[in-house]
Amino acid sequence: MILELVDILIRQGEQSEFDIAIRRGLSEIIAQAKGFKGFQINKGIESPERYVVMIYWETLENHTVDFRESTAFQAWRTIVGPYFARPPIVEHFSLLGKFG
Q1: Cβ neighbours of residue 16 closer than 8 Å, sequence gap 6 or more
Q2: 3-class SS at 52?
Q3: CB 76 within 8 A of CB 97
């Protein structure tokens, strides 16, 4: 399993609208993608314009090829992209260890 970690910074004052948009984009678009396994949205406390999204994929290619090269990616960006203060920082991780 692959973890896609997305660090998102949105424009100030748009948190309420973005909260709705990101939930919608994840549940309606990304959740339907090949290899999708689950997600978690984390909202900043000290920095309320910052979100860290964790998306779990079966393989790296499920995200980088199957999803990113699909029309679904464009639909996702149409929903959440207007709120971005800067392009999201996206990295992928594999599990090294787990507790609990």
Answers
A1: none
A2: strand
A3: no
